[in-house]
TrEMBL record:
One of its GO terms (cellular component) is plasma membrane. It comes from Micromonospora arida. One of its GO terms (biological process) is osmosensory signaling via phosphorelay pathway. This is Sensor-like histidine kinase SenX3. Its EC number is 2.7.13.3.
Amino acid sequence: MPERIDFPALLAGHTVVIEMINSGDAGLPVLTQLLRVVQPALGATGMAFVEFGPTGGRVIAATGAAEWALGRPLAVDDPDTVCLLSGPRVTQVRVSDLNGKLAGELAGSGLRRMVVSRAEIGGHTVGSLHALYPGDDEPGTEQQGVIAYLASCVGHMYGDQSGLPVHGDGPVVAALADGLAVVDRDGHVRLWNPAAAQVTGRTVEQALSRPLPFPLPPSGQVRDHRMPDGRWLRITSGDLPGPGTLRVVTFRDITDQQRRDHDRELFVAVTSHELRTPVTVIKGYADTLTDHWDSLTDVDRRQAARVIGQRANELARLVDRLLSSAAEVGPGDDPPTPFDLGEALRSAIVDLPAELRRRLVLRLPSDLPKALGHRPSLSTVLTELTTNAGKYSAPGSPIEITASGDGHLVAFRVSDQGIGIRPEHVERAFDRFWQGESGDRRGYPGAGLGLYLVRRIVEQQNGWVSLRPRTGGGTVAEVRLPRG
């Protein structure tokens, strides 16, 4: 150990560190450079800095004979950790006086003494700076003074949010559920907490000293921003007090909230549009019957009653779809059981509207295997598929229902000869409220809920449903269920 510290070398090296900071460097590069210039000036064999958080410490920077310790954790209840965090702020420690595992590791590397100083901010310890020596000679008071000064410099780096803490696990910052960043006057990140890394997918190393991955709103304002991957973030910002021009930014993922808001707005729009037509027709015919009963013929009255009945049925089905789409649709907790698919299809057809039944062509094999699922829900599935087929095909054109089975699956198909479906729409058609047409140009009524409900019901029975264009024109809807 040298009798005196090489102060010219220390000052020259410290100047380099300050220039790095002035050039925009931060975090680990600056801290590591500080240790590199301090080690020879103090005559130390190695230098290390331990960053402390609520769950313990970790060696985040090390040089010389201490490089092997880089990344080593120190548990919060480790005896060596307790020793380092208690007592005077700066002290000399004989390795043999330590009682934890660290003591053996240090001795095994030929290190016998160290000068330690805690780096603190407002009485809160953020880390500890260590100068390590191989001999038994006690370091002088000058070494302790320099280490204490340098630990204060490191503490200032933490207080200035210069890319520290490295692991973002300060007791407050790490506990935040929202992403938190501190940016400098150039918009470069100076602090990046764990939640920020989780929300954006950018690690601390990828984020520090770089611009934010989203626009920075003016101080005191809130902005919703859509990321390139489609996720939405809600971002707020505010100026930090003090002489610097730092700004704190918080953000959270609101993708689910945006989706719920969109679904709610779409639900209101679709519901108001689809309910308006049957309600208007029912009211119109009811008013006609009330105001002109005596002047109407029996044929006119029957026709009005028939239209009111048809529109009331449409209204009931629409309300049922809307309620089902907002709730859990399916068999609930009832276990799937084998059932006769052919018989279930024939029974379900009986409940369809008369004009739709007249168009159906049923071709079911006599040896159709049983399906495994929930028979009562099949009526809803068939109603939606046949209604959809009838809506998108010419009145009076046939709608064919066929079925088949193999060793694992049983399937039935609903085929129409209508306008068909574009290949790029075969999956989107199952989205809730999706319509092939939109706005005032829509030529076909509907809320866009039928196929959405069908897919939910079928998949809850471990089956699946698909759409495909029909050869010769039209659409084929196919439902596959496990064989019973």
